[in-house]
Amino acid sequence: MSDYYEILGVSRDASTEEIKRAYRKLARQHHPDVAGVASEEKFKNITAAHDTLSNPEKRRAYDMGGGMPGMGGAGGPGFGGFSDIFETFFQAAAGGTGQRGPAPRSRRGQDALLRVSIDLSEAAFGAARDLEVETAVVCTTCQGTCCQPGTHPKTCDTCQGRGSVQRVARSFLGQVMTTAACAVCGGYGTIITDPCIECSGEGRVRTRRTVRVNIPAGVDEGTRIKLSGQSEVGPAGGPPGDLYVEIREKPHPVFTRRGDDIHCSTALPMTAAALGTVLNLDTLDGTQEVDIRPGTQPEEVVTLRGLGVGHLNGSGRGDLHVHVDVEVPTKLDDDQEQLLRQLATARGEERPEARLAPASPGMFSRLREKFGGR
Question: Where does this protein hold Zn(2+) 1 (predicted)?
Fold first, then answer.
């Protein structure tokens, strides 16, 4: 029998995708329905070569010398390699032969992770997003059987459908019996002689589809939402994996989030802070009136209850904290300066005495921001 790589016309270091492309090209040329009955044997060889080389486990076994009839193992004809020796030793220590039934072709699909960016409003109230994902779905031509319609897998002649083979190996322990997965069928017990051309015998095809994800209120940076069964279908139409959606929260131009509370700053003229006023503030819930009491001091915080981010997996919302920054005028005209001097005289503040007090934490934070310290 010819070498499988020669049959497909690919190099021994060819990628899986190169092997699949070579198979599709040859399968279309030599399929009995196209080239006649005379090409049936050649088509079977092409199929067997593809079935072995497109499967990483079967290809690895084949490259080690166990994939062709009449070829010995890695240690030469009649001699097992070191892997056989250690395999046999541990099997004997375990008190068993290690034999097992044929492996199923159908396997669960892999999980997948997507990242989606949301704004603060979506995090506060929740949202629904339609995500377009590239994934694998069941092949509609073979319905996940991996075979051309109207055909079925053939029982492996080498292992007689058991999925494993036994052989005698000679080692320093003497002659021992080893049991390993059949290299011809890859341990499946059957060989697909006529793979589905549409999916190259995988039972699944790649496609793009839309998945809707409901983002609950209260999600934060790094939160992961699990969508069960929304990832790719497994080989041979196996059950799909799960899709995880990881949240990335975009910075807001005004509000800063800390947990479920949000913070912002507002600048007040010195006179408004002294006399009190009412501010119209644009919040996540629309325009809200904020009462500034007379005598409001710099760094004072006004809290608006329930205007923050919704609590994840709970009811209610965080708060909105408005940090007040009092602005002192830097330029005064003559009339304004005269009025302030009259006020200072009335309050006895023409020459105020210095009253030292411990620096507030807010002062140090402002200094760190100004000078870039830690």
Answer: 139, 142, 196, 199
pLDDT for 63 beyond 90: no
Measured CA distances, 4 to 48, 67, 78, 206, 348 (Å): 8, 9, 23, 26, 102
What amino acid occupies position 64? M
- Which DSSP letter does residue 316 get? S
Instruction: Tell me the range of 48-57, 177-186, 224-233, 349-358 where mean pLDDT is highest.
Output: 224-233
Q: Where are the domains of the chain?
A: 99-153+192-250, 256-371
- Residues at the binding site are 139, 142, 156, 159, 182, 185, 196, 199
Residues 6+ apart with CB under 8 A from 357: none
Average pLDDT over residues 70-90: 39
3-state secondary structure of 120: helix
Read off the pLDDT of residues 183-242 as tens digits, 9 standing for 90 and up: 889 899 999 999 999 999 999 999 999 999 999 999 999 999 999 999 999 999 999 999
SS3 state at 277: strand
State the CATH architecture for 256-371: Sandwich (2.60)
User: Is the overall model pTM greater than 0.90, yes or no?
Assistant: no
| Tokens 């929260």 belong to residue | 249
The CATH number fitting domain 99-153+192-250, selected from 3.30.300.30, 2.60.260.20, 2.30.42.10, 1.10.443.10: 2.60.260.20
- Give the residue numbers of the binding site for Zn(2+): 139, 142, 156, 159, 182, 185, 196, 199
- Asked whether this chain's domains 99-153+192-250 and 256-371 adopt the same fold, the reply is yes
